[in-house]
Inverse folding.
């Protein structure tokens, strides 16, 4: 017999008959995905809708000044009477509104008798629609008592108010800043002049009716010879 395997080239695999391809499934044979899932039962006709969320409680009132009548206030009123116009407390801090003409003696008493030895700040607030448009505000601190006190006095446009720089030397520059920004004149100040702006600047920028853009344009053009913003 002849060995036929010797006649085949090396590496040639023995031939196998091809398997017939399976026919593709027809659409009718594919089960629908939706049909495989159970249908969601409808809600019974008598069911009630879900209850609405309860209304939110009203927001807590914001903290603000409340009338104050404690030992401190009574001592001031016993000493200065009607010159203590109002007394309130805000965030555990006493606030006294005083007659501007009595500010200097009240300041001296506050430092010497009530031990408020540190003037933390002296500033102002502009209320242009009010008859006396300015609040002059002194924020004080007692190192001995670890206590704060705010003293305010109302001043009209053009009205002078006493300087307290002789009581608290820190007031020197703070009063100059108030004069520069608001135009408030502190009577008795040793050298009341501008501290932030040039001496020839017109007006006072922190007044609410002040046109800062117009004034800046005029000053820059007059003093620097250029248009503002160049």
């Amino acid at each position: 017999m002849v060995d036929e395997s010797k006649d085949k080239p090396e590496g040639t695999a023995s031939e196998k008959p091809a398997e017939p391809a399976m026919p593709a499934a027809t659409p009718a044979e594919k089960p629908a995905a939706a049909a495989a899932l159970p249908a969601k039962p409808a809600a019974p006709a008598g069911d009630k809708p879900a209850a609405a969320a309860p209304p939110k409680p009203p927001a807590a009132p914001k903290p603000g000044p409340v009338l104050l009548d404690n030992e401190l206030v009574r001592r001031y009123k016993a000493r200065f009477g009607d010159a203590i116009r109002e007394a309130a407390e805000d965030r555990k801090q006493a606030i006294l509104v005083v007659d501007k003409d009595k500010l200097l003696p009240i300041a001296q008493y506050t430092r010497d008798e009530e031990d408020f030895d540190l003037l933390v700040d002296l500033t102002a607030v502009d209320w242009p629609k009010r008859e006396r448009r300015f609040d002059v505000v002194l924020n004080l601190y007692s190192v001995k008592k670890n206590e704060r006190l705010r003293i305010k006095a109302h001043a009209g446009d053009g009205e002078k108010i006493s300087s307290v720089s002789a009581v608290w030397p820190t007031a020197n520059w703070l009063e100059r800043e108030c004069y520069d920004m608001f135009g408030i004149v502190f009577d008795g100040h040793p050298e009341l002049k501008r501290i932030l702006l040039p001496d020839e600047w017109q007006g006072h920028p922190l007044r609410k009716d002040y046109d800062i853009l117009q004034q800046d344009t005029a000053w820059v053009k007059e003093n620097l010879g250029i248009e503002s913003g160049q």
Summary: The chain has two domains: 66-196, 197-230.
